[in-house]
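Can't attach files on this board, so I'm pasting raw text. These are the components:
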Amino acid sequence: MKILVLLSQVPDTTARIAFTNGDTQYDGNGVTFIMNPYDEWYALVRALELKEAKGSGSVTTITVGGADTEATIRKGLAIGADEAVRIDAQPTDAMQVAELIAGWAKDKGFDLVLAGKETIDHNSGVVGAMVAELLDMPYVPLASKLDVSGDSATIERDVPGGVEVLEVKLPFALSAAKGMAEQRIPNMRGIMAARTKPLQVVAGGAVSNAASTVKFELPPAKGAVKMIPADEAGKLIELLHTEAKVI
Amino acid sequence: MSTIAFIDTRGDKLPKAAQEAVTYASQLAGGPITAITFGDAQGLEALGANGAKKVIVARGVKAVDSQQLAKLVCDVAAAEGATSIVCVHDATGKAVAPRVAARLKAGLVAGATGLPEGNRFRRNVFSGKARAWVEVSSAVKVISLSPNSIAIANTGGSAAVEEFNGDLGAARITVKELRKAGSGVPLPEAELVVSAGRGMKGPEHWAPVEELAQLLGAATACSRPVADMHWRPHHEHVGQTGVAIRPNLYIAIGISGAIQHLAGVNQSKVICVINKDPEAPFFKAADYGIVGDAFEVLPKLIEAAKKLNAER
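---
Top answer:
Structure tokens for the assembled complex are below.
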């Protein structure tokens, strides 16, 4: 079973949010970058578990970005991926990322394409579905469980009011949400092994330019919190009705 | 120039998000639009009140089959000569909108939070800590709309409902089972949410949380530790790893407000925080706050909610 995991590098969850170049780019100055948590904890770790359970197969990670993403990519190899691909490009839109990934993956015969549910910076959650479309694969968003048996898989996902159990034949793609796997910390052996695992750099090709993020801004500052004494707590309900007018 | 809206109409009544998407599409178009849906929903004529002149429905297609649904949307878009395709940024729309965009080489705005200024659409990024403007330059645009981003239009009128009879290819995903977990208002649809965390000290203490929610007509939610300890079902977990919501009112009881929790709720219009720790970080993100013990504050809120309900 050949598994492809889409890996992104993102600013740390607690990083300062500021923009540069006339508010057109995230200001990464002094910021710690990490592997997108959903790609790491859910997609990559579940891919490794599936490979280990089967005792055969391979896990390849693919990242679109500059040379500054290589430390993150090496971490993926240290956690246990067999090989990594970096497409050297600076995309300004999710579609460009998807086109580059699908363009590379299309004749490689992957059985499974796993993405995290979204990146914690752009929050789009659409690259996995676009890659699935470009590779003509079924796609399940927000999967919380995945088991593969032979050429078919059982998937669970949370839907409003319950859990949906799905069956789909390989190959297919999905985005992974909470429940899929637990975080794995790379051990020293993994870190050493990662140094010599293959990290292939591919030049980015032509991409479409249908949409792009042109400007960032910070939300307006929140007004001061209105405190209500605990022994007059009932007043909150009154204020929500008469002042905030939400109930 | 024509605009269409793809909506999920499953449920006992027309979902709020579906009515919002039709309203948005018709405001974008400056007139009535064609809506597309699937499944066995009845009463679709009522979407006329939100701005649909026609509703095309593909019976027998499942929400999870985004390949069939993307083909449905693309076929209708071609027949209508659509230049703007509006979807909802929910589990169904997050699979269908990007597929349609990739198929049509159309620019996608994932999770628009309002009507555009020219060709620029605003969306939230960095879990609500910033906003981005996306400029779409392609002839066809695909916009998935964040829930609770627009007031639903109610102009009266009735839409013509047509069944879609075209070929959508074979279903490639089978739904084996739907394990129901509780009832009540689905969280992403809820306008009012009462949420509680570890401060409740145990699952046996949830009755007053549920009572307050019921009195207000709100959905119940919880923080991550509470779901992880199985005090509450997982689908109630709001936050970065759970469900992200943007209701009109979010009441958080006994939740300290870790950055990961805030990421899932900071788009709520009004936030009330009840916590016995005056240093809880959640107060910084709140509109109203009460420093106090949940078990003393909740009965007072319940009493006030009963009084309010009796008056209206």
